[in-house]
């Protein structure tokens, strides 16, 4: 993946605790309706600095800290990023050969870089949304049929 932040390992116990505390502290700032929030911090020399963050970024930061606080590693991928077929298959929880079949059928757009296929992350997510919606629609239909037939579920 280009320009992604991929963790090298799971967070340590100390990182988990700091993330838990930080996510709780930062979540308080999310109650504001302001478009941005300003934070002051001290660097290693003890000098004060201020940083202004858009509230949308703050929400993302709280989500990341919450995940780390649960002991999970987190990766951040820009929406416009391109991923390999293996990375995309992992996102969909399918095998790489199956994912390549989806590409070749035209279900998901891709481009070739020499002999390698590259897929936009957003296209993978869009495909996932489409199949999830179709899956839910099928389940709704099955539920309605079961109700009509009095199957008891």
From TrEMBL:
Key words, A-Z: DNA-binding
Pfam families: HTH_17
GO molecular function: DNA binding
Domain Helix-turn-helix positions: 84-129
The name this protein goes by in its record: DNA-binding protein
Species of the source: Paraburkholderia piptadeniae
Top-level taxonomy: Bacteria, Pseudomonadati, Pseudomonadota, Betaproteobacteria, Burkholderiales
């Amino acid at each position: 993946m280009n320009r992604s932040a991929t963790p090298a390992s799971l967070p340590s116990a100390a990182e988990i605790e700091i993330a838990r505390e930080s996510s709780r502290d930062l979540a308080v700032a999310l109650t504001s309706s302001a478009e941005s929030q300003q934070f002051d911090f001290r660097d290693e020399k003890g000098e004060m600095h201020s940083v202004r963050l858009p509230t949308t970024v703050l929400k993302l930061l709280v989500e990341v800290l919450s995940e780390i606080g649960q002991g999970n590693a987190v990766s951040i991928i820009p929406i416009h990023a391109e991923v390999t077929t293996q990375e995309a298959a992992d996102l969909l929880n399918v095998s790489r050969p199956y994912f390549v079949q989806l590409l070749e059928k035209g279900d998901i757009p891709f481009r070739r870089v020499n002999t390698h296929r590259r897929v936009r992350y957003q296209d993978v997510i869009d495909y996932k949304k489409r199949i999830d919606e179709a899956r839910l629609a099928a389940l709704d239909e099955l539920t309605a049929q079961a109700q009509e037939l009095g199957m008891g579920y």
